[in-house]
Amino acid sequence: MQTSARFYGPMEPCGYLPEQIWRLEYEFVSRLTPEEYQQRLESGWRRFGHSLFRNRCPQCSACQSLRVLVEEFRPNRSQRRADKANRQRTHCTITTPAISREKLDLYRRFHAFQAEHKGWPQLEDSGYFAYIASFVENPLPTEEWQYYRDGQLIGVGYVDVVPHGLSAIYFFYDPEYRRYSPGTWNILSLIEEARQRGMPYVYLGYYVRGCSSLEYKANFRPCEVLRPGGYWERLE
User: Fold this and answer.
1) CATH class of the 65-234 domain in this structure
2) What is the distance between the alpha carbons of residues 59 and 169, in angstroms, rounded to a whole number?
3) Beta-sheet pairing, 223-226 with 64-69
4) Which value, to the nearest 10 degrees, does the dihedral of the CA atoms of residues 167, 168, 170, 171 take?
5) What is the mean pLDDT of each run of 10 residues along the chain (236 residues)?
6) Residue 203's closest CA among 79, 40, 74?
7) Neighbours of 182 (CB within 10 A)
8) Given its phi and psi angles, is residue 150 left (phi above 0), alpha (psi -120 to 50 degrees) or beta?
9) What are the CA-CA distances from residue 134 to residues 2, 158, 190, 202, 232 (Å)?
10) CA separation (Å) from 33 to 66, 161, 165, 194?
11) E strands within the chain?
12) Could you check whether the bond before residue 34 is cis, i.e. omega within 30 degrees of 0?
């Protein structure tokens, strides 16, 4: 691993639980092996672009990394509906990350919809260079998952491959296709692909009870969360 900087961000209002104060620890890396990132995942770190980060909040430990137990996973009723809505008509192509006008426009439409309907902050920078820095230039091998429905690109996901599983980085989709539950279909696809590769886990990032944007992850069961003591515990 090649690290260029490591520091703590300022204490500021939490983006997940408004009544809390959060603080993040950052590490900027130019190169990272899958084995090294696996170790970081086990310590609660996440990655976006060349930034590794984890929570270092003074009075709150609500942000907990969550992973799905692949072999034991069984879809619930709503997940089975999403499977039925997509299995025959939505197809996934796994490739190397790259930028295109089509993907950038899709990314912008997704964020505009989330900002209008869910109160997400507006994108500070949605240009080519910001997209490349976030999704295309990565410090370790990363996959781009392209979802097509009837020949139309409707979703794009970015996934890190580590020794023990697949780690979801980010997924965005065309809001016009939201009735088909593309986010759910993306996670179901990750679980199925991990099973085919013989991997035990799918890492979904942070789960925060009380935050509607992150609570959905606990619907993919059985799953485990990383407790503050550094151990994984099944979420009941």
Assistant:
1) alpha beta
2) 26
3) antiparallel
4) 150
5) 88 93 96 97 97 95 98 98 97 98 94 79 74 95 97 97 98 97 98 99 97 94 96 95
6) 40
7) 24
8) left
9) 18, 10, 20, 21, 28
10) 21, 10, 14, 19
11) 2-8, 12-13, 21-22, 24-31, 46-48, 51-55, 64-69, 90-95, 142-149, 152-162, 165-173, 201-207, 223-226, 232-234
12) no
**What would the two tokens of residue 124 be?**
């500070």
182-196 vs 77-86: helix axis angle to the nearest 10?
A: 90
What pLDDT, on a 0 to 100 scale, did the predictor assign at position 2?
82
| Closest listed residue to residue 213, CA positions, set 113, 101, 118, 102 | 118
Amino acid at 70: V
- Look at residue 126 in the predicted model and tell me its pLDDT: 65
The pair of three-digit structure tokens given for residue 48, joined into one six-digit string: 């976006």
Q: Which amino acid is at 164?
A: H
Q: Report the C-alpha dihedral over residues 88, 93, 99, 104, rounded to 10 degrees.
A: 10
Whole-number Å distance between alpha carbons of 211 and 119: 13
**CATH 3.40.630.30 residue window(s) in the chain:** 65-234
Q: What angle do CA 196, 168, 3 make, to 5 degrees?
A: 120
| CB contact at 8 A, 25 and 150 | no
